[in-house]
Structures are given as structure tokens and as C-alpha cells.
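Subject: Sanity check before I submit

Could someone independently write out the C-alpha cells for this chain? I want to compare against mine line by line before I put it in a report. The sequence has 497 residues.
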Amino acid sequence: MESSLYIAVDLGAGSGRVFLAGVDPAELLLEEIHRFQYPPDVESRHLRWNFPQIFGEIKAGLIKAAVRANELGRPVYSIGIDSWAVDYGLLDADGNLIANPVCYRDDRTIGAMDSVVARVSRSTIFEKTGIQFQNFNTLFQLYSEDGNLKKAAKLLLLPDLINYFLTGRAAAERTNATTTQMVNAATGNWDYELLEKLGLPAHILPEIVPTGCDLGSLKPDIATELGLPDVRVIAPATHDTASAIAGAPLSADHAYISSGTWSLIGVERDDMLTDRETARQNFTNTGGAFGSICFLKNVMGLWVFESCRREWKAQGADIGYDAIISEVWAKPEFSAFIFPDDPRFLNPPSMLGAIEQQMAETGNAFNGDPASVAKVIFDSLAFRYASVLRTVESLTGRKLKGVEVLGGGGRNRYLNQMTANASGLPSRSGLTEATVVGNVLVQAIAAGRFLSLDDGRRYVAENFEFEEFAPQGSSKIEEAAERYAELEARFAETSYC
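---
Independent answer below. Compare away.
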């Protein structure tokens, strides 16, 4: 299978990419074929994803990938889909999508968590599932469903829904299934007892399959439409974070920060941590590739900055990413901080307004200059990352020696350096397409190209260039750390994440 190509479809919460990849011993091919956007929009009273648009764009990308593979004269072995977690679609008895999937940022789950834990205690749910409490988890979304639930014959998470329309097979890949907070940690299957206590229909949930499962070939009409005959559909680690971690050549004493819209901070483990302190700190044990555990915590991430950029653009200031980071580098002082995981930052009408409001509450003057706002966000994220990394060490009893920065946020060299400075740990970036890489590695393992994930990770380590960021301690950093810690102590108990 050395000459075979693989197609990775990576869906973020608002934009997607299709990549064509090859992992021959003497050559790494990673070519972006198609990029598209699909912001959620209000439809039938809820913020929803336009699934026909998403699926149409995926097919357009697959057609382009087929053309490119023919140009290269190499066969496509398989397709793998990964996406963000928790969101799902409901199918009727005929296999039709009942309505466009609701976006996790919709407000329908307000109050759902309180209602659920009134019926089954918070400690019981965490002991059963090992999953952190976020009010957009699938458990709370399903509890908040309207009349469509009565019409549903099947519930499929987003990547599983796409796989269903590609192959006709309905299944839930393990890594994404665990994010629902409905999978029993001990059995690895849906927690039917929990669902029954909450009055939720377990019969609509599909079988859970392992990472790397061969879901079958494309349906004949789809294969003809796409120009991809005899192509398999493999379930990678369908949760994008799990794919990113799978693609990273992690050392045992290194943490990861999967940096993008969200920042996922943690370590890879063989077993779960479900003790009381882990629950209190709201860490999670989501499934990783091939039975591993992604022990991590969510931080609001670059969503805060990107939301500000959209506002500036709407105001007529289309500010380039690299340009604003250059301006941030030129600002050596720490003027102010925000607490990134404040619930008000999840989906405010105005992110700039939400930042100004929080800063006013903490006695900080708001400077609306884009570079000044960006510096406040990046510095605050770095110190938040450092705080979470210290908690990782405390909960796991492992002393960390470094941090691997994964994903698109790794392009932000200022944030990488500040993360090293704030944490005192050397940081390394380079796998900006970590999710795609992990997606491809799993497909290549299924094809027999690699013997194991360790084998694939060695290939990654040998074929990518990495940049190191050594900690640069100073009295200014120490003073800033103390100021941030005081701010975090004020807000942490009401943290969204």
C-alpha cells in the first residue's frame, strides 16, 4: 500500500478542508485540495448547521481529490472523516435527515444541566462517563430536544452522519462517541442505565466501533458521482482532537495543546482519572485512538480572537493575522488580562463588548486598538494554559518536561513563546495540520502501511520540521503571572470549561 493515497476530510466548527495525502517511505505528500466555510445560521428557532451544504462541499472536495490522484497516477485507498464533537443529526425510519443539526453554541441547553443533575447526580455521571461538564455536551443537547426526537430512528454524530450518507452504514466511532457524556467508561458502550433514568431513547444510538474500523466501500451511486471506485471509508479518530493527538509524536512526559477555536490541553494516558479532584477541576477523559485516553481540559481558545477579527472586519478593518501578531511582538508590557473561560465569551453578540465588560469589572481600562486587544487575549491564553498544565501535573502526579503545540494555533509564534514563558516549559510547534496527519495515519494503519500508531508517529517525527520555544523567564513574567492568578481566582469557579 506504499503508493496508495488517502483522502482526509477535516471539519472544524465553521470551516472544512479536504486533503490528499501519501505516506511513502521516501515522500510525504500533504496537499490541500478544497477549503470551504459553513457558518451556522438560525433556522426553525435554533442555530443550525446547513448539512446539505456541508455534504455538498465534501463531495466537491472528493471529486477534486479524485482528479488530482488521477493526475498523479496513484490509487486512492480510502477516505476518513473527522469533525468537532457533540453535535448530531437525527434520521427518520427511512434514513432521511429530519432537520439540520443544531449547533452546540445554540442556547437551547440553558438550564438543561441543572435539570439533568437534579435527576442523576453530577458525581454519578462523572464516575460513569469520566467526561467533563459542559452544557453543550450531547447528553444535555439530547435532553433539550423538541418534538423531532419522537420521529427519530437513529442519532448520528456529525462524522458518523457523513459516513452514513457515503456508505449506508450507521455506526459511532469510539473517540467521538465518548464526548457525548453518554458512554460508560467501564463497558465502553452506551450507558443505558443513565439514559433510562433521564428518559432518553437509547434505541436510536448506533453501535460503537473502534478507531480504524473499515465502514465499507462508497455506495455505488456516490462512487460514480465522485469518480472514486473501489475506495474504502475508514473511521479515523473521528473526534478532531483525538486525530490531532494521534498524529503527534508525543513523548511520555510531554503535554499537548491542540490549539484552534478551542484549546485542548492535556496528556495521553492508558487509563482514566475519575477521582473527586479531577471532577472538581472539570477535566475530561475522552477516547483517543486505538484505546488510549485523552486526559484534558477545554479552554475557550482562539475563538475569542477570531470573533474580534470578525467584528473589526465588519467595521471595515480587515486585519491580517501575521500583521497583528507582529504588532503584538512590539508591545513588551503586560497591560491587562482577561479570564478566557468566562461563559460570556461563548457566543456573545459582541466579543469586543464582552471583553470590555469583563475588564471593567476587574478595574482594567479597555484599549480598543486591535493590537492591544490581541495582546491581552494572547497573554491571557498563555497564562491560562500554564495554569491548566500545572493542574495536569497535580492530577496525574507526572512532572511535565515540555509541550507539543498542535493545530493551526501553532502558527502563532507569539502565543507559542508566551506559553513557554508562562509555563516554564519548552514548547514545540510544527504540526499545524496535526488533525489531518492523525486522520491519515489511522487510514494508513488500516491499509497496512504502518504496523502501529507508534510506527506512524516515527514517520511523522522524521518528516516534519519543528520549531522549539525555550522559556524566557523574567521579573515581568513573574509579576504578570501573579496578576493573572488573582484574576483567575476571581472567575474560575464560574468557568464555562
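---
OP: Matches mine. For the report I'm noting this point. The CA atoms of residues 89 and 389 lie 35 Å apart.
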